[in-house]
């Protein structure tokens, strides 16, 4: 599973670079040329100038969408590392929404392993799940506080996101609020995902992601 995710992450990074270096730069050059034409036709050709202005604005939105796609392949925030990305995400979440947060990160929570590609894949998944979890808190929980716990050992990484909001009924906790997307992300790499929520009692999201081969039970007779 780890090897498969490593291949996926390498491919996502390659696609992101190709889009940025080729299509992104071409669109940016076109935007500059359109802007120059827009300025040069100002006053002399009102109809053409208006059309060029709308074309330039439309192209600007296309470039923004393209950047969002590139960021979705590999969040730019992770360029500074998972710890920085998580802390900045939580600070922004609290500032914008007025919801307090508490981050409890274990001593080795942000340590990497021997394979940078696998680390990058896991960091992306953890960060995306955190983003989706916080988005659910804002949209549905009516919470005033959220607690995040992140711990890592040699075999697994665990993350818990708990809010003090209104909770969710059973059917919604299983199927709604973008939670299916989180479940799919975790299961795709052999992890586990659980939701504990009751109306009026807040919501706890728990996930476990395997980082390496599981420990062998004593006396199993299996060799490394």
Automatic annotation (TrEMBL):
SMART domains: HATPase_c. The lineage of its organism: Bacteria, Pseudomonadati, Pseudomonadota, Betaproteobacteria, Burkholderiales. The keyword Transcription does not apply. Transmembrane segments: none annotated. Its EC number is 2.7.13.3. Its main location: cytoplasm. Its cofactor is [4Fe-4S] cluster. It is found in: Cytoplasm. It holds the Pfam family HATPase_c. Member of the two-component regulatory system NreB/NreC involved in the control of dissimilatory nitrate/nitrite reduction in response to oxygen. NreB functions as a direct oxygen sensor histidine kinase which is autophosphorylated, in the absence of oxygen, probably at the conserved histidine residue, and transfers its phosphate group probably to a conserved aspartate residue of NreC. NreB/NreC activates the expression of the nitrate (narGHJI) and nitrite (nir) reductase operons, as well as the putative nitrate transporter gene narT. It comes from Massilia glaciei. InterPro entries: HATPase_C_sf, HATPase_dom, His_kinase_dom, Sensor_HK_TwoCompSys, Sig_transdc_His_kin-like_C, Sig_transdc_His_kin_sub3_dim/P. Gene3D superfamilies: 1.20.5.1930, Histidine kinase-like ATPase, C-terminal domain. The keyword Thylakoid does not apply. SUPFAM superfamilies: ATPase domain of HSP90 chaperone/DNA topoisomerase II/histidine kinase. Residues 18-213 form the Histidine kinase domain. Keywords: 4Fe-4S, Cytoplasm, Iron, Iron-sulfur, Kinase, Metal-binding, Transferase, Two-component regulatory system. It comes from the Bacteria. GO terms for cellular component: cytoplasm; membrane. It catalyses: ATP + protein L-histidine = ADP + protein N-phospho-L-histidine. GO terms for molecular function: 4 iron, 4 sulfur cluster binding; metal ion binding; phosphorelay sensor kinase activity; protein dimerization activity. This is Oxygen sensor histidine kinase NreB.
């Amino acid at each position: 599973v780890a090897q498969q995710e490593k291949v996926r992450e390498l491919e996502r990074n390659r696609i992101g670079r190709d889009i940025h270096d080729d299509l992104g730069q071409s669109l940016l050059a076109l935007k500059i040329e359109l802007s120059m034409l827009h300025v040069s036709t100002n006053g002399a050709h009102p109809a053409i100038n208006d059309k060029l202005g709308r074309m330039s604005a439309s192209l600007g939105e296309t470039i923004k969408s393209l950047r969002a796609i590139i960021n979705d392949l590999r969040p730019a925030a992770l360029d500074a590392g998972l710890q920085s990305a998580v802390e900045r995400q939580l600070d922004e979440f609290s500032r914008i929404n007025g919801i307090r947060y508490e981050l409890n990160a274990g001593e080795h929570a942000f340590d990497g392993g021997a394979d940078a590609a696998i680390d990058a894949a896991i960091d992306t998944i953890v960060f995306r799940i955190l983003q989706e979890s916080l988005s659910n808190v804002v949209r549905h929980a009516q919470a005033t506080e959220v607690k995040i716990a992140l711990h890592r050992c040699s075999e697994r990484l665990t993350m818990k996101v708990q809010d003090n909001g209104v909770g969710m009924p059973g059917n919604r906790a299983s199927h709604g609020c973008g939670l299916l997307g989180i479940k799919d992300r975790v299961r795709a790499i052999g992890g586990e995902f659980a939701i504990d929520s009751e109306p009026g009692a807040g919501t706890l999201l728990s996930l476990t992601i395997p980082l390496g081969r599981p420990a062998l039970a004593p006396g199993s007779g299996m060799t490394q």
